[in-house]
Design goal:
This is DUF416 family protein. The chain is mainly alpha-helical. It is about 70% helix and about 0% strand. It has helices at about 5-10, 15-40, 45-60, 70-75, 90-110, 115-135, 140-145, 150-165, 170-185. Helix 3 runs parallel beside helix 5 (about 90-110), helix 4 runs antiparallel to helix 5 and helix 5 (about 90-110) packs antiparallel against helix 6 (about 115-135). The protein starts with 5 loop residues before the first helix and ends in an 11-residue tail after the last helix.
């Protein structure tokens, strides 16, 4: 798996920062799920958006009450199976669901660091897998490290990390700003553009 120094640096953040980091990366994977549902008629393309919106709400609304268990159940029923589709898009859709379920698990367990690292890995995996698929071959970790698409994904993850790390305490305006910037760009980690 592609390791990155960001995984060590995440240890320095508090749990609200981990949760925001995960929500940001899920936001960047959401179009991959939506696009897959659109292309195949699978499930409800809006489900991912609704669950993710509830998670954002818990970050910005003081006493937001969300039943994370029931959201996780809904999500688990809405994960496509790779065996059922002869379509590359199923893999980014599954990765997006894996990331969102990590985020939900972190809210259930209160343990955020390992889940934040897992979401970072899910997002980079989507990018690396697409690059290898387009190249038609496996690539070494060394090759992937210098791959422009992989570099760009790490850059964006670092950028989100730095904005969060600069905060002394939970900054609601920053959280809202990140949410709206990522949502309005509507572009996923692999360049799928899905305007909501």
């Amino acid at each position: 798996m592609l390791r990155n120094p960001i995984h060590l640096r995440l240890e320095k953040l508090e749990s609200w920062q981990h949760v925001t980091f995960m929500a940001c990366l899920c936001e960047r994977m959401a179009p991959n799920y939506r696009e897959f549902c659109q292309q195949t008629g699978f499930g409800d393309g809006q489900l991912y958006r609704r669950i993710l919106d509830l998670l954002w709400e818990t970050l910005v609304v003081k006493d937001a009450k969300v039943n994370f268990d029931s959201q996780l159940e809904k999500l688990e029923e809405a994960i496509p199976s790779a065996e059922d589709y002869d379509l590359y898009g199923v893999y980014p859709a599954i990765d997006a669901c894996v990331a969102l379920s990590e985020l939900l698990h972190s809210r259930l367990s209160g343990e955020t660091l390992t889940h934040a690292i897992a979401v970072s890995e899910a997002s980079i995996t989507t990018v690396a897998m697409l690059e290898m698929t387009q190249a038609g071959r496996e690539m070494t970790e060394e090759e992937l490290k210098v791959n422009p698409a992989v570099e760009e994904e790490w850059d964006i993850q670092w950028e989100i990390f730095r904005l969060l790390a600069a905060c002394e305490e939970r900054d609601i305006e920053l959280i809202k700003g990140l949410r709206s910037d990522l949502r309005e760009s509507g572009i996923s980690n692999i360049g799928i553009n899905f305007q909501q």
